[in-house]
Write a structure and sequence with these properties.
Largest sheet of chain A: 2 strands, antiparallel
Order of helices and strands of chain C: EEEHEEHEHHHHEHEHEEHH
Helix content of chain C: 25-40%
Order of helices and strands of chain A: HHHHHHEEHHHHHHH
Number of helices of chain A: 13
CATH architecture of chain A: Orthogonal Bundle
Oligomer: heterotrimer
Strand order of the largest sheet of chain A: 1-2
Chains: A mainly alpha (303), B alpha/beta (641), C alpha/beta (235)
Radius of gyration of chain C: 17 Å
Shape of chain A: globular
Number of strands of chain A: 2
CATH topology of chain A: ABC transporter involved in vitamin B12 uptake, BtuC
Number of strands of chain C: 10
Structural class of chain A: mainly alpha
Largest sheet of chain C: 6 strands, mixed
Largest interface: A-B, 43 and 49 residues
Strand content of chain C: 25-35%
Shape of chain C: globular
Chain lengths: 303, 641, 235
């Protein structure tokens, strides 16, 4: 392997990692507040991708200038998923909020199955590959050692870091973010200081789901084939990434996403069959060496 | 009001126990006479179960539609999966998302072996008995291979908790699957085909094997979780830390649950691979969704309910099949039903409820031996903390702590909130290892040792914020302290050997005697969480005493009690010390308790000892007044002065 | 009258925790609710704050029926609570905890004024305002919990066992603060195990037993009452 190939792998890994990072970010937002592993998060990616697909294919999109087209694809996917996320939270998660976490997890699995099989009914089970070229075409922007960096690479990276910065600001510096953290810590006390807990949680779901939608569109852009089960594996892997970084920790989730994307790409290059296994192996190694994740902080158990 | 109630129940109790005694006298001799017979019947019962399963099998082969028959076998296999996972998740509380991985290991090991065997000696098929023996061997082999995988996975991952454990087991499950994809010797991604259906002989169909193994799985797990040693699993689920502090080797039991669960999952895999309508496995059969299916069965049935797992395995196997007629909407409906079920019955269909067909004979609380042996203390130093320091990051919780507890002493440890009192307890009981210093019990070093060993060596404790095993009965809370004193193996429990039965009765008698001492025996079958607050505190003390400790550490035993309750507990603590010579270290906030019963008081502030002496000396010590007591005139006078 | 709880029944599942509880708190009063563990004291406060819904009866605040209002709207009306066990947000700083106390307020000047006041009562909180609440000692956390509730600018302050688990010297400090808060015109409903101290600081008191009010009256009368002395004062 020469330098060019190594660099090429690096770029591919970072591009994949950016998408994982974005999905993991959404996972972490919801987990950070509710301590709920929202299994349906991966399927919201799929819904986002399909929403984006339909908007991009619609005749309306034809007439618009390119940046507006992109913006409307992202905006409608994100908005649609935000509403879906709020709906899911309202119908499936809120009624069991005070039940054991495993109950919530099984419900989440139920929601995930519902979206997957519902997607097969609505969108059909066969993968769609007819995404518009303007959405998926990789236009080289620059070249370093014969390694091409395309506009889509930049879009993924730029989008991921912008959204990370935004979310981080929101959580750390706004009153809304403080309310989120307060709920995560002690929901009863949050009620007692006057936080409208239901609204904050619904908004958190809206945010997390729109992040899922954004990553769904990016996934469809980078790997132009969409089907109702497309969210399953990226969803699980992004969850792995979130745990890797220290679940609930936003920069950790992004870091975990990049580590995972890079590792997968590199290992996949040498032994494509082992791609999935090695991602999980790294996860297990990290969990065993530092059980709270890369950036997670350990808490001493109160006795 | 209080006394009224207990009078009434006492009356009832007397009537009952008199009755029982009459019965006991003749049934005792009758029992002696027929015990060997009973023992034989137990095993003939087992044989009868096998025989009736076989008859059922014959009937099904003759009568049943092949598809329905296949479904029945599938139910059996799913039942084994669900019940074995329930041991890990429902009983031990370890959330595993990798059960399909163990199933895969069992399926592959068994299928590869039987394929190889059949290739070696094609004549195998001519002798039904020989073939059956080989098949039995192959399924056991599948189970053992999976158990080995369970050990390899469990040892490192079971340190993790909750979501981290879930994701790690998910990871291992996937790794196992990907390993098979890359293992050309077992067909790689194509998988294994033409697996010989060894279970089908002229005498038996595959169903008989599935039913047999389902019965074995249920029996073994049922016996294990019901015996005293098996309380360990549920104790870990309820409160791992407290479990360690009553002498339970939590790592051992967690790994054991994992290995046992994996064994049966492996058997299920072997049975699945050899099913005459299947005969084919590939890595995709054991994808993540398969693990999820097993988890769903456990939770839908109810965590910790074997009956529930059986029901859920049946319903959730049949349901998708019956929905087949509605085509693509089938799985959508399945998902919706799952969500609705969780919303309406969050604890699963049966919660923790268990079908039980036999009431155990009750031990009468009237003829119990004295649970505690009077002990004349020597006054020798028993527990010594030598210059112990505990640092968390930059924070020093305890600094140069020095304390020698002589045998038979009752010492009070007081100080402001956050002064480090509970940390001292955590150091002694092995929850923390001191950053510096030594802790000695007699001449044995305690620091650096795990909590369960320290508990077994004679240090028992209670907790500031009550850490009972909430969902367990009062009796089982105390029995948990006998896990390491059980004195029989799980084999004895599974086979219901006589010495196991005898020992179980002894343990129950001891537990009841202790409970009676604290007036809790009437409530022995209630869940610990349903006890009134004061009783919960008392039960925690009983559980600690069941360890027959040399030293008892009590962390605010009267916190949250009203004056009357406080008096009663004080009296009891004093009795433990006076009558039975138990050495006690007591953390308290209620000054009356400390001043009333302790002869020596140690005062802590900011992790250090600021004063030590008799209650009188402490009360007038200016340092103590400033840091803890406040102005002397405001201090309430102790009750018994 | 500021608060009136009227024949309220509350259930946990099938278990009835409150049986027709009726109590009143007048403006400017300190009223204490004493009783054994499990008598329903915390349940009463949670019902007033809206964390629990009564199946029967109603709750009036400032002449308005608030029985069906969600918790945050009750805070907006002026009911703040210092919950049992402090329940400060451990991973947030002292300052952030206090800011969350004023979550529903928009009057920056008023918030600043109350913040200064809280810091003047508890100088220790001012010293530690950038520390995580989790690093505070138990007593300091109790101060923070009180400060957080005060920042809601409440008309009625519900305090649930503020002295629980504190050393005698801190207990005295907390009761001194309770008097200070009242002097500022805040009405207080105080739940306490430490009946001795509570009855000494309060104007009136109610005794709760297994979910029922069994006794009520002036605090001095209760202090002298034979049954109260026996059951709650340990004499």
């Amino acid at each position: 392997m020469d330098v060019t190939q190594a660099l090429q792998l690096l770029v591919l890994g970072i591009a994949l990692g950016g998408i994982y990072a974005l999905i993991a970010l959404g996972y972490s937002m919801v987990y950070g507040v509710l301590r709920l592993i929202n299994f349906a998060h991966g399927d919201l990616i799929m819904v986002g991708a399909f929403l984006g697909y339909f908007v991009a294919k619609s005749p309306m999109a034809e007439g618009l200038p390119l940046p507006v087209r992109f913006a409307s694809v992202f905006a409608s996917a994100m908005l649609g998923c935000a509403m879906l996320g709020v709906l899911i939270e309202r119908c499936a998660y809120r009624p069991i909020r005070h039940q054991p976490r495993l109950t919530a997890l099984i419900t989440a699995i139920g929601v995930s199955l519902f979206l997957e099989y519902g997607g097969q009914v609505v969108f059909g089970a066969t993968p769609r590959q007819d995404l518009p070229l303007w959405l998926t075409e990789q236009n080289p922007l620059m070249q370093i050692f014969a390694v091409q960096i395309t506009d889509k690479h930049l879009l993924v990276l730029g989008g991921t870091f912008t959204l990370l910065a935004l979310m981080r600001f929101l959580v750390l510096n706004t009153l809304f973010g403080k309310a989120m953290r307060a709920i995560a810590q002690d929901m009863t006390a949050a009620y007692l200081v006057g936080i409208n807990v239901n609204r904050v949680i619904a908004l958190t779901f809206a945010l997390g789901s729109s992040l899922a939608a954004a990553s769904g569109v990016m996934l469809a852009m980078s790997y132009p084939k969409i089907d109702p089960l497309m969210g399953l594996m990226p969803g699980i892997k992004a969850f792995v990434a979130a745990v890797l970084g220290g679940i609930g920790d936003l920069p950790g989730a992004v870091l975990g996403g990049f580590v995972l994307g890079l590792a997968e790409t590199v290992v996949g290059y040498f032994a494509s069959g082992l791609r999935d296994a090695v991602a999980f192996t790294i996860l297990i190694l990290i969990l065993l060496l530092k059980p709270t994740g890369l950036l997670g902080k350990g808490m001493v158990e109160k006795v | 009001m209080r006394t009224g109630r207990s009078d009434k129940s006492a009356g009832r109790q007397i009537g009952k126990s008199a009755n029982r005694q009459v019965m006991a006298s003749w049934s005792h001799y009758a029992l002696l006479a027929i015990r060997p017979l009973l023992f034989a019947t137990r095993y003939s019962l087992l044989a009868a179960v096998f025989a009736s399963l076989w008859l059922l099998d014959r009937a099904f082969v003759a009568q049943l539609d092949p598809y329905a028959f296949y479904l029945l076998r599938l139910i059996g296999i799913n039942l084994i999966l669900a019940v074995s996972l329930n041991l890990i998740m429902g009983f031990t509380g370890q959330f595993s998302l990798g059960h399909a991985g163990f199933m895969a290991v069992g399926a592959y090991a068994a299928a590869a072996t039987s394929k190889w065997l059949v290739a070696q000696s094609p004549a195998l098929a001519h002798s039904p008995v020989w073939q059956s023996l080989v098949f039995l061997g192959v399924t056991v082999l599948g189970g053992l291979a999976a158990a080995l995988a369970g050990l390899i996975v469990g040892l490192p991952t079971l340190r993790l908790r909750g979501d981290y454990l879930a994701i790690a087991t998910l990871g291992f499950g996937e790794i196992i699957r990907v390993t098979f994809v890359n293992l050309e010797i077992v067909g790689g991604a194509r998988g294994l085909t033409d697996i010989p259906p060894l279970g089908v002989t002229p005498l038996t169909s595959h169903f008989w094997w599935v039913a047999l193994w389902a019965a074995i799985t249920l029996w073994v797990i049922y016996r294990i979780v019901r015996c005293t040693r098996g309380i360990a699993f549920q104790a870990i689920r309820e409160d791992e830390l407290a479990a360690g502090c009553v002498g339970i080797n939590t790592t051992y039991y967690k790994v054991l649950a994992f290995v046992l669960g994996a064994f049966f999952a492996g058997v299920a895999g072997a049975l699945f691979a050899h099913d005459p309508d299947q005969r084919y496995i590939n890595p995709d059969t054991f994808k993540f969704m398969k693990s999820i299916e097993a988890v769903v069965m456990v939770i839908v049935g109810g965590m910790g309910s074997l009956t529930g797992s059986v029901m859920a395995a049946s319903v959730l196997t049949v349901l998708p099949e019956t929905l087949r007629s509605i085509g693509e909407y089938r799985m959508v409906l399945y998902a919706l039903l799952l969500i609705v079920l969780m919303l309406t019955r969050p604890a699963g269909l049966l919660g923790g409820w268990e079908l039980s067909w036999r009431r155990r004979e009750e031990i009468s609380p009237d003829d119990l031996e004295q649970p505690l042996q009077p002990h004349r203390p020597t006054g020798e130093p028993l527990l010594r903390l030598c210059d112990c320091t505990m640092q968390f990051g930059g924070l020093v919780a305890v600094r140069d702590f020095r304390l020698a507890l002589r045998e038979g002493e009752l010492v009070g440890l007081i100080g402001p909130n956050g002064a480090g009192k509970t940390t001292v307890f955590n150091l002694v009981t092995g929850i923390y290892t001191p950053t510096a210093g030594e802790i000695l019990l007699d001449s044995r070093r305690l620091d650096g040792q795990p909590p369960h060993l320290i508990a077994r060596w004679g240090v028992a404790r209670t907790f500031q914020n009550i850490r009972l095993f909430k969902e367990l009965s009062v009796l089982n809370n105390v029995r948990a302290a006998f896990v390491h004193q059980a004195g029989y193996s799980f084999w004895a429990a599974v086979l219901a050997l006589p010495h196991h039965q005898k020992r179980e009765r002894e343990i129950e008698r001891k537990c009841l005697a202790l409970l009676k001492l604290f007036g809790l025996h009437e409530r022995r079958h209630e869940k610990a969480k349903n006890l009134p607050y004061g009783d919960q505190r008392r039960l925690e003390i009983v559980r600690a005493l069941a360890l027959a400790p040399k030293v008892l550490l009590l962390d605010e035993p009267t916190a949250g009690m009203n004056p009357a309750e406080t008096q009663a507990v004080m009296h009891l603590i004093k009795r433990l010390n006076d009558e039975w010579g138990l050495t006690i270290l007591l953390i308290e906030h209620d000054m009356r308790v400390v001043m009333g019963i302790c002869r020596r008081v140690v005062v802590m502030d900011f992790g250090e000892i600021i004063a030590e002496g008799s209650p009188e000396q402490i009360r007038t010590d200016p340092k103590v007044i400033a840091a803890y007591l406040g102005e002397p005139m405001e201090v309430e006078t102790p009750a018994d002065e | 009258m500021l608060l009136r709880v009227e024949s309220v029944d509350v259930f946990y599942g099938v278990i009835q925790a409150l049986h027709g509880v009726t109590l009143e708190v007048d403006k400017g009063e300190i009223v204490t609710l004493i009783g054994a563990n499990g008598a329903g004291k915390t349940t009463t406060l949670w019902t007033i704050s809206g964390l629990l819904r009564p199946t029967r009866g109603r709750i009036l605040f400032d002449g308005r029926d608030i029985t069906h209002l969600p918790p945050h709207e009750r805070v907006a009306l002026g009911i703040a609570q210092v919950p049992e066990g402090r329940r400060v947000f451990l991973n947030l700083t002292v300052m952030e905890n206090l800011q969350l106390g004023a979550y529903l307020r928009k009057d920056r000047d008023g918030i600043q004024r109350d913040l200064d006041w809280v810091f003047s009562i508890f100088p220790r909180l001012a010293e530690r305002k950038d520390q995580l609440a989790g690093t505070l000692s138990g007593g300091e956390q109790q101060m923070l919990a009180i400060g957080r509730a005060l920042l809601a600018a409440p008309k009625l302050l519900l305090m649930d066992e503020p002295s629980l688990g504190l050393s005698p010297v801190l207990v005295q400090e907390i009761f001194r603060v309770i008097r200070t808060i009242r002097e500022r015109g805040v009405t207080i409903l105080l739940v306490e195990q430490n009946a001795h101290m509570a009855l000494r600081v309060a104007d009136r008191g109610y005794v709760l037993e297994t979910g029922r009010i069994v006794l009520s009256g002036r605090a001095s009368e209760l202090l002298a009452n034979e049954a109260v002395r026996k059951a709650y004062l340990g004499e």
